[in-house]
Amino acid sequence: MPDLSHIVKAYDVRGVVPDQWDEPLAELFGAAFATVTGASAIVVGHDMRPSSPGLSRAFARGAAARGADVTEIGLCSTDQLYFASGRLDLPGAMFTASHNPARYNGIKMCRAGAAPVGQDTGLADIRALVEEWAADGAPEPVEKPGTITQRDVLADYAAHLRSLVDLTGIRPLKAVVDAGNGMGGHTVPTVLDGLPVELDAMYFELDGTFPNHEANPLDPANIVDLQARVRETGADIGLAFDGDADRCFVVDERGEPVPPSAITALVAERELAKHPGSTVIHNCITSWSVPEVVKEAGGTPVRTRVGHSFIKEEMARTGAVFGGEHSAHYYFRDFWNADTGMLAALHVLAALGGQQGTLSELVARYARYAASGEINSTVDDQAGRAAAVRAAYEGREGVTLDELDGLTVTASDWWFNLRPSNTEPLLRLNVEARDAETAARVRDEVLAIVRA
C-alpha cells in the first residue's frame, strides 16, 4: 500500500514518479476526486513533464469510471486550467510539479470556479478514499461511466486575459521572456500575438527535463541568462515564468530584478483605478510599500498569512479586487480569485508602454525600502530558536510583536518576519528597513540568534 503521507501536501499532491506514485494511483485519485466533489463533469490539464500525459489520462479514466464526463484540455499552464475551471464552471485538476525537478509530478485540484481544494476543503477526504481503495481494491465502475473528450481553450484563455488589460495603444516594447522550457513557452506566444510587443523568446521549447536551468525564477541563479539577454539586446523588460507558468518574475531594462512587492503595488494601483475603493490582499512579508500604495490609491489593504489558500479565502471573504505575494503569485477577482502570472505581466507591460520612462524609473515609486530577501537557516529546533528571537525583542521599547504567521517584529524604521518551514527544518527570515544599513544590521542581529 502506498504511503500517501509523503505525497499529499497541504494544498496539492506532489512526489517522485514512479517511486512514490504512478498511473494506477493517479487513476484512484481521479475516482476519489469525482466522488468527493460529486461532479458530473470535470476538466483536466497537464504540463510538459514526460510523466504528465500518462498520469493525466489515468486520472481522467478514474473520474469517468465514477460517472464524471471529463474534458481534457491537454498541455496548459496552471492558470489556463484555472481559466477552464472558471469559464466552464467545472472542478479541475492540473498535473504539474511546478518548479520541482523533472522526476517529480503532482496534482493541483480545484472545485468549480477555480475554488481551491486543500486539506480542509476536500483533499483529506480524497486521500482517505485513495488509501481505502489502494488497500481494498478500486470500486466497481458506475452503471453509466462518463465520457472523455478533448477541448483546446488556449485561444479563449488568451482572449480573456487580453480583455482585462488593454495593450493595443501602448508604445512598442521589446520584451525578453524566459520560459525555462516550461508552459510559458506554450501560453506566451498566443497571449502576446498581435500586440505591440517584440518578443525575444528564451527556452520556449517544452521540455520537462529542464535542460537549460531549473524553472524556478525565485532562485537568482535561474534568471542569470535572462538578465544577460536583456542587457545585451537593450530590451525594455525581461519576464521569467516558472515551470507551470503561474508565477511571473520581472527584470528591468538594466537586468535588475524588480521585487514582487513592487509589482504587487503597481498592479494594485491599476486595479484600484478600475475598481475605486476596493480591498487588496497582501501577505505579512510583502513590503511596507504595498499597503501604503493601496491606501494612497483609495483602497483598503488587508494583511494575511503566507500561502495561496489564505489569500484566496480572504479575497472571497472581503470581495478583494487583487492580491499579491512576495513569491510572485498574483491573484485577481476578474480571474476567479485565482493566481495568474500572465495577467500580472500584461499589467506591467501596459503600465510600462503607457508612458515614456524606463521600467526602473516606473517601479522606483513602488520599491521604497531596503529588503533582505528570504534567508533560510537550517536549525535543529525551530520552536526553540524562534522563541529565543521572540525573547530578545519582547518588551523592547518601540517594538511590537505579532504572530499572524510566524513571528513579526516591527519598529518605526524596520520590521522582520521569522517563519518555520512546514516541510523542512528551516527558519525563513525576511527583513525590511528604511535604508540598507539598518536592514543589514537587523538581519545580522536576528541571524546571530537563530544560528547560535
TrEMBL record:
<keyword id="KW-0460">Magnesium</keyword>
<feature type="domain" description="Alpha-D-phosphohexomutase alpha/beta/alpha">
    <location>
        <begin position="156"/>
        <end position="255"/>
    </location>
</feature>
<dbReference type="InterPro" id="IPR005846">
    <property type="entry name" value="A-D-PHexomutase_a/b/a-III"/>
</dbReference>
<comment type="similarity">
    <text>Belongs to the phosphohexose mutase family.</text>
</comment>
<dbReference type="InterPro" id="IPR005841">
    <property type="entry name" value="Alpha-D-phosphohexomutase_SF"/>
</dbReference>
<dbReference type="Pfam" id="PF00408">
    <property type="entry name" value="PGM_PMM_IV"/>
</dbReference>
<dbReference type="Pfam" id="PF02880">
    <property type="entry name" value="PGM_PMM_III"/>
</dbReference>
<dbReference type="InterPro" id="IPR005845">
    <property type="entry name" value="A-D-PHexomutase_a/b/a-II"/>
</dbReference>
<keyword id="KW-0597">Phosphoprotein</keyword>
<dbReference type="Pfam" id="PF02879">
    <property type="entry name" value="PGM_PMM_II"/>
</dbReference>
<feature type="domain" description="Alpha-D-phosphohexomutase C-terminal">
    <location>
        <begin position="374"/>
        <end position="447"/>
    </location>
</feature>
<dbReference type="InterPro" id="IPR005843">
    <property type="entry name" value="A-D-PHexomutase_C"/>
</dbReference>
<keyword id="KW-0413">Isomerase</keyword>
<dbReference type="GO" id="GO:0046872">
    <property type="term" value="F:metal ion binding"/>
</dbReference>
<dbReference type="GO" id="GO:0005975">
    <property type="term" value="P:carbohydrate metabolic process"/>
</dbReference>
<dbReference type="Pfam" id="PF02878">
    <property type="entry name" value="PGM_PMM_I"/>
</dbReference>
<dbReference type="InterPro" id="IPR016055">
    <property type="entry name" value="A-D-PHexomutase_a/b/a-I/II/III"/>
</dbReference>
<dbReference type="InterPro" id="IPR005844">
    <property type="entry name" value="A-D-PHexomutase_a/b/a-I"/>
</dbReference>
<protein>
    <submittedName>
        <fullName>Phosphomannomutase</fullName>
    </submittedName>
</protein>
<feature type="domain" description="Alpha-D-phosphohexomutase alpha/beta/alpha">
    <location>
        <begin position="261"/>
        <end position="369"/>
    </location>
</feature>
<dbReference type="GO" id="GO:0016868">
    <property type="term" value="F:intramolecular phosphotransferase activity"/>
</dbReference>
<keyword id="KW-0479">Metal-binding</keyword>
<dbReference type="InterPro" id="IPR036900">
    <property type="entry name" value="A-D-PHexomutase_C_sf"/>
</dbReference>
<feature type="domain" description="Alpha-D-phosphohexomutase alpha/beta/alpha">
    <location>
        <begin position="7"/>
        <end position="132"/>
    </location>
</feature>
